[in-house]
Amino acid sequence: MKKIFFPLLAIAALSSCQQVIDIELNSKDAAIVIEANITDQPGPYTVLISKSVNFSDPNIFPGVSGAFVVISDDAGNADTLTETSGGVYVSNSIQGVAGRTYAIRVLADGKTYTAQSSMPNAITLDSLVIEQGGGFGGAYIIPQWQDPVGQGNHYRCIEYVNNERVGAFLYDDAFSDGLVNGQPILNFETQLESGDTVRVEFQCIDAANYLYFFSMDQTANNNTAAPANPETNFDNNALGYFNAHTVSVRTVVIP
What we know:
By secondary structure, this protein is mainly beta. The protein is 7% helix and 40% strand.
């Protein structure tokens, strides 16, 4: 794997005309941030609860301890999570099942936050096709799966190269309903090389989480500040997401 860097000459060319713009970045009260996942794979599942920080502060998000967290489903199951360390809460008994709808309730700092997510039916990632001559001359991956007809599916592929996460990529079937996926993973910041091990975690997600990740950043680069808060499925002004999704994983080695 080779990291791609854009030349400084291009940056210099873009800076030949300069205008000074003063941006007022107001401080705001810290907001609660909840990152919660439940999958069709065996648990336990983890919920992370922290607080936001101001733009000018270091990107160190303090964990929120002492919260009360419950995940339940539409089959009558409920699980009260256990805090294992500051801001980290782990499930005890609930099992994610494709086709069920899940709800989460978080009581933290005297406020209650809720969200709901429907886990789609599971679709298998059939294969990872290796193509040569991708971005900047390297190889690239085409994840292949059969999209079912008429269901309005949404997908997220998380790519790992040599066990390092390099990006996450979103797909929907607006123009490929009922077809085998042929859209590649094009990560222009990473060039795949011979001997690299590529692992793709394929998630079937609901429409609300597709909107969240799309509004956050299609590459899910957590080092990039979003111009506005992403479209969360939590209420009461919480940030973050609750994502009930299926998981299918494939791995290939670049020849």
